[in-house]
Amino acid sequence: GDRKVYSLPCCLVAFLLSCFKERRKKVGQFESSRSAVWGRPEKKATMVPSSSVSSSKPRIGARDGGGATVRAASKALQKKRPTGAGGHKFEWKDKTNDGTTYLEDAMDPGDPLYSSGAEDDENYVLVSGGESASSQKVSYCAGAPKVVIGPKFTLAEFKRRLSKCLDELYSSGDLEDAVASVKECDCPEFAFEIAKRGVSKALDRRAHERELTSKLFARLAAEGVLAPRDAARGFERLFESLDDLVLDAPLARGVVSDFLVRCVVDEVLPPANLVDRVFTALGGDVVDRARRVLSRDHAGAKLERIWGPGDGRDAADLKVLIDQLIAEYLATKDLDEATRCVRELEAPKFGHEVVKRAVALALPKSQDDRLAVHDLLYALNSDDKIDPTLSLHQTKLGFDRLFNALDDLKLDVPNAENLLQDFASRAVKAHLLPNDFRNTKALTPPATDGQNGKGEGGESEKKKKNTPAGGGRRRPHKRPLPS
Questions:
Q1: Cα distance between residue 448 and residue 17, in whole Å
Q2: Are 199 and 238 in contact (CB under 8 A)?
Q3: Could you report the per-residue pLDDT of 325-356, keeping only the tens digit for each?
Q4: Which pTM does this prediction carry?
């Protein structure tokens, strides 16, 4: 039994040893025959110490059974047969072809390189998996006769066109033209830039420009150009750069919060965004302030006028505001606050209304109140030498309107003529009115016998013309009675 178990391994070992011996014999015969053909004596493999190898000439590789070496000089003289194997297998056979030239176009429709024609090569779209090319937005570019897939302009070009549109809106106030210009850009992929760019450009502007920006947002939202998702994304981008904007506009945080409130009131932005975690984390105190302002009771009507009286409202609203600020000024005598309120109206062409209403409200008051109104007019005229809040021309227009309405003023204030004359004289001395300002109802002295009284062209002259020569009264002409 033991013999049968170990007989197979022993036989296998014996077979391998015999094969190895036969291989050694054949190698020795080949070496001897090659030496005889080339005329070189047969060399036996010997071990060479490392010291002798380093002192001898450089040798390359081991050949001839692993023992013999070939000198570098003899190696250089040998000419290797050019083949496509070894180190040359990754080289191009044609040295002039760098891989950019191809074979002839495949004419078989089943070939992957087959092309139906050059005219259809440009009309292809790369889409992700599960999305078809038909779902992409297709538009036509007027600059090139071809169909454009996606946005018509790049982001940089869209920003440039949007900035130009906002500048034209601020200079002209034409809201319809601004809406048409934004719609012509036709880039819904970059709609978030409308909210971001509009708010950032209005930070250092006046209340009128901010009101125009808010109206533009509302119109674009109604037209479907500015979606709520795009408006929220634009504010998020604005929150990320708010620290840099504060350096140029110190009141940027408050203005951005007011824009956020106005967008919620105008239904541009849904109120749910103010409680969103990401939106709140990016906005911080700006979103918290907007949420507190919106939480007030019955604040909708006031928040529509969040930019103050200088937002370009109607003349009737401005008249009400002027009456309120003049009444408050006469009660508190706070000159700085009254000057600031008039300046915030941002209506330089409406200064004559300030003069008219301020003087009219001060006429029935005491002398101190009239002097306070005079000080207010002087402060408004001298706050800026180049561009004052109340110009000389507007002051003159205001006093002209007062003199024209003198008959109505006398109904409430009988001595309105004398008080108004005193106002005008004091304004001329303070250089609020031109030196050559003259009004027949105010600055001219009353009529005397020698001046426009009984002189030429006066009332007495007219009576003389109507008086007969005999000194009696002229009898009226009697009409004949009808027969």
A1: 158
A2: yes
A3: 899 999 999 999 988 888 888 778 888 889 99
A4: 0.51
